[in-house]
Amino acid sequence: MPSKLTTEPACENVDSSFLRSLLGYNTRRVTLKIFDIFAARTRAYGLKPVEFSVLNLIGHNPNISHGQLCAELALLPPNLTKILQKLTKKHLIQRFRPESDKRAVYLKLTETGQQQLHELEIVITKLERDSASNLSDEELEQLIQLLQKNYGKTA
Amino acid sequence: MPSKLTTEPACENVDSSFLRSLLGYNTRRVTLKIFDIFAARTRAYGLKPVEFSVLNLIGHNPNISHGQLCAELALLPPNLTKILQKLTKKHLIQRFRPESDKRAVYLKLTETGQQQLHELEIVITKLERDSASNLSDEELEQLIQLLQKNYGKTA
DNA sequence: TATTGTTATACTCTATAACTATA
DNA sequence: TATAGTTATAGAGTATAACAATA
């Protein structure tokens, strides 16, 4: 790319005050930071945040359906199918067709799945607390409450 | 996929309490919600959130360099290059090579760029306020403060 | 005909490696 | 030799369309 020359001085301290005043900018940055720590601490399990979310919901909601998972996690059906295939290959979940509606798929954890979910929940609970080390317990709780209040039942 | 049949009852109300207790889950959901509204309200400008962030930083930091932008926004150089090419094509930014170091690139907004940045900042300020309609002014401010305190200077 | 979930595929976003030019 | 930025490309994440099986 051809560019004109300049003798103007460089920009010294970067002013990002406008961006830092935006909720969306801040939530994205925090998400990226936490997901980095997540990747580092759960490497042994080979599961990404969304995949853990799916495992968790199946664990706490036996016989949850494909459609219910999509709605709860704002995932599109084709993408959830891939995640479920991966979890099935890792022998973490089992699939059942209800007699009452043979189109649907009901999901459950295997023994292995329950064990890994339990371990992961411990790792992640600790990880969450550590990733917010700048915040007191009260502040963290308050932060999460404010975030929930924001996206509420709509999403 | 072959699945066994079951006569067990469906899962009724989905319990997502564990996920909702996680900071990372909540920040991701809020980000997605805000970015959806962003897309809807800024469609006329044809800029995505990251592209707006770049435009904003260049506007508030004349002669900012490629490297400074990457550091501030946690972008990789090749991906920033693409964004800058798009902004250049839209005649929103200009590129200069400093006499002192002809490897570097200093960036500035064009007149058009300044105009569009100004308009976008108004749209986005309003959008941010509307997207957090469940929160009072005080709560929104507090929320942003807590988020900033979390990722602080490290990220 | 409508619904549940799958397959195939395209598009976007992010990441890595190799390169040019300056220093 | 090291640094700033670019190019090309690969991989992950997300989206749309068409389909099979069941209701």
Automatic annotation (TrEMBL), chains A, B:
Gene Ontology annotations of biological process type: response to stress
One Gene Ontology molecular-function label: DNA-binding transcription factor activity
Keyword Hydrolase: no
Coiled coil feature spans: none
Domain HTH marR-type positions: 20-152
Pfam family for this entry, one: Staph_reg_Sar_Rot
Keywords (A to Z) from UniProt: DNA-binding, Transcription, Transcription regulation
InterPro entries tied to this protein: HTH_MarR-typ, MarR/SlyA-like, Transc_reg_Sar_Rot_HTH, WH-like_DNA-bd_sf, WH_DNA-bd_sf
PROSITE patterns: HTH_MARR_2
PANTHER family named among the record's database cross-references: HTH-TYPE TRANSCRIPTIONAL REPRESSOR YETL (PTHR33164:SF43), TRANSCRIPTIONAL REGULATOR, MARR FAMILY (PTHR33164)
Protein name: MarR family transcriptional regulator
